[in-house]
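W.,

You were right to be curious about this one. When I first looked at the sequence I had no strong expectations either way, so I just let the prediction run and decided to look at it fresh. Below is the sequence, 269 residues in total, followed by the output.
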Amino acid sequence: MKDMYYYITNIPSESNREVTDVSLCVNCAGIVDNNNFLVSNLSRHDFYFLYLQKGRLKTPNGTLNGGDFIIFEPNIPYSYENDGQTSYLFIHFSGRDSRSLIEANELPIAKPSQIGIHTSIKDRFEYLFQEFMILDEKSPEIMASILTEIITLTSRYLKGNSIKRIPLKSIQHINFHYAENLTIEDLARIENMSLTKYRKLFKKHTNVSPLDYIISRRINVACIMLETTHSSICEIASKIGYADPYYFSRIFKKKVGISPQKYRKSETY
């Protein structure tokens, strides 16, 4: 990979600016992938977010390793140098709400912090680079939105709410296979957890048990089918995983408050 830089203007020096007439503005962004560079006492008029992908960066405030990020403030000199082959993603941004975005997400300033390597953040950078290539009248607004996502995701990972702590694989499995005969044991195996640990983690994240989540997913689909199709109650029950339409009707009434027949009448015009 080689270094890539993207600027909001055709003149790179004009991207070093403080913006106050919009909420957020991405001035420039890019990738640095090199084994020989030194940044010494530079100062810009905007915020500087740096996300290290590999290698080491030495700064006066500490050393960054792969998976670390650092944010430099406007108008305050910063320095860093690499130690061997080093690669990092970066954004320079400004706007009247730029500082409040950082503060609201409780991100430290000028302090190396570990979040790990996350494809969700790297993907947002790719979207950002694409917008720099498009650069039409909507691009500044879209770039500001992507910047907000990057900062918010960084906050999530910094606080330890990593996607790894969410039973995402089993939740996805339920959403794709809700009509099948799912067991809690199978779902726990998907997450490589014991039954007790899985139930606890699942409820912590969703506020319901795995079984209640499966039932809710099935009933939600049933409601849509009752509203938008002419399928019989028996057919709908079978399609969402209930062989017994009478049992389905009891579950439906318990969750929704009325029978499937009455629901269809109330939602049909």
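Here's what jumped out at me. DSSP finds ten helices and ten strands in the chain. And, maybe more interesting for your project: The first strand starts at residue 4 and ends at 7.

Coffee later to discuss?

I.
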